[in-house]
């Protein structure tokens, strides 16, 4: 059985903290070689058979380096295929565990069905679709694998602020869904979404907190080095208090994250609350970090701005903080 500290050590050796946003292709090769694509795949299906605490630990470490590899949607895509009963299930599991990429897309797609059954419209906001062999998307008939090289399928990149990620729209124009690639029917789509959405929330939360810790460490190192009035600014009591506030926000969010990760009975709203708290803490830490860096924090030459850009995107992933704060409040009061 692989221990969590072994996963953490392997991640830190493969992706050292001083190398932010390593190249996507090389990172993907490393991720596949270390077996992280199949970390949640049961042993009887050829995987590592680990739980979501293990995958969260990996996402935490990948957040630390602002990883460019789309590990979260890849793992979710494999879990979607695992939950299906398609005839080629074993073949697809082997392909995805071996390094092919088929991300899960949980957002509603804007699609229209023609009388002949073909689909046209946009599956918007797919991470790194340019390297995908297929996308797991919700079609009118249920979740399905949509091959990116199929007739009627094209990929258009969408410009985003976060340089550590790439986002694409999948454009369907008369695409004819393959019945053999339908992972669920229309009735089963909601069940698959509700089963995997909590996993997505916890993965993004772990990414947020790994990155928030790295941003805080970077800030403290700068405060130790930067001098004013013949002493490091880390000695100024007011700045110490701000750094302590940053650490406190991270610690609270981490406590909730690991509680939800270890609680198999945690609901979607409870997992979403953990993600929201983590994303808000990440945003707070990066905003404070830029201010504590002073003028250099506003330049592209210093890497701290990259943490803020990732934080701003993470805030919106899996639903906005306003949405989930409201739902969390209603559930608590109900």
From TrEMBL:
Family, per entry: Belongs to the acyl-CoA dehydrogenase family.
Domain of life: Bacteria
The protein's name in its UniProt record: Acyl-CoA dehydrogenase
Keyword Flavoprotein attributed: yes
GO MF: acyl-CoA dehydrogenase activity; flavin adenine dinucleotide binding
Listed Pfam families: Acyl-CoA_dh_1, Acyl-CoA_dh_N
Ranges where the Acyl-CoA dehydrogenase/oxidase C-terminal domain occurs: 202-314
Organism whose genome encodes this protein: Novosphingobium resinovorum
PANTHER family per record: ACYL-COA DEHYDROGENASE (PTHR43884), ACYL-COA DEHYDROGENASE FADE28 (PTHR43884:SF20)
Alphabetical keyword list: FAD, Flavoprotein, Oxidoreductase
Positions of the Acyl-CoA dehydrogenase/oxidase N-terminal domain: 25-100
Co-factor(s): FAD
């Amino acid at each position: 059985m692989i221990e969590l500290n072994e996963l953490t050590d392997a991640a830190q050796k493969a992706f050292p903290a001083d190398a932010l946003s390593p190249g996507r292709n090389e990172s993907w090769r490393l991720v596949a070689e270390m077996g992280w694509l199949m970390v949640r795949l049961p042993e009887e299906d050829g995987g590592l058979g680990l739980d979501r605490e293990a995958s969260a630990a990996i996402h935490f470490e990948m957040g630390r380096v602002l990883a460019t590899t789309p590990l979260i949607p890849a793992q979710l895509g494999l879990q979607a295929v695992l939950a299906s009963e398609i005839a080629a299930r074993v073949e697809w599991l082997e392909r995805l565990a071996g390094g092919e990429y088929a991300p899960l897309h949980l957002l509603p797609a804007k699609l229209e069905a023609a009388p002949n059954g073909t689909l046209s419209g946009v599956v918007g906001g797919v991470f790194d679709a340019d390297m995908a062999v297929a996308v797991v998307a919700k079609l009118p008939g249920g979740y399905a694998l949509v091959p990116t090289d199929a007739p009627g399928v094209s990929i258009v990149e969408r410009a985003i602020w976060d340089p550590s990620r790439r986002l694409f729209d999948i454009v369907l124009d008369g695409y004819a869904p393959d019945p053999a690639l339908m992972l669920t029917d229309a009735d089963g789509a909601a069940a698959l979404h509700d089963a995997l959405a909590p996993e997505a929330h916890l993965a993004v939360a772990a990414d947020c907190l790994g990155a928030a810790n790295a941003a805080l460490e970077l800030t403290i190192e700068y405060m130790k080095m930067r001098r004013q009035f013949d002493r490091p600014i880390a000695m100024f009591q007011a700045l110490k208090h701000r750094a302590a506030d940053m650490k406190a926000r991270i610690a609270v969010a981490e406590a909730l994250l690991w509680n939800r990760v270890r609680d198999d009975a945690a609901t979607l709203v409870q997992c979403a609350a953990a993600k929201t708290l983590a994303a808000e803490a990440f945003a707070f830490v990066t905003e404070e970090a830029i201010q504590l860096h002073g003028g250099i924090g506003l330049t592209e030459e210093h890497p701290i701005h990259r943490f803020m850009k990732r934080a701003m995107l993470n805030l919106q992933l899996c639903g906005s903080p306003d949405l989930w704060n409201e739902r969390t409040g209603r559930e608590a009061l109900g």
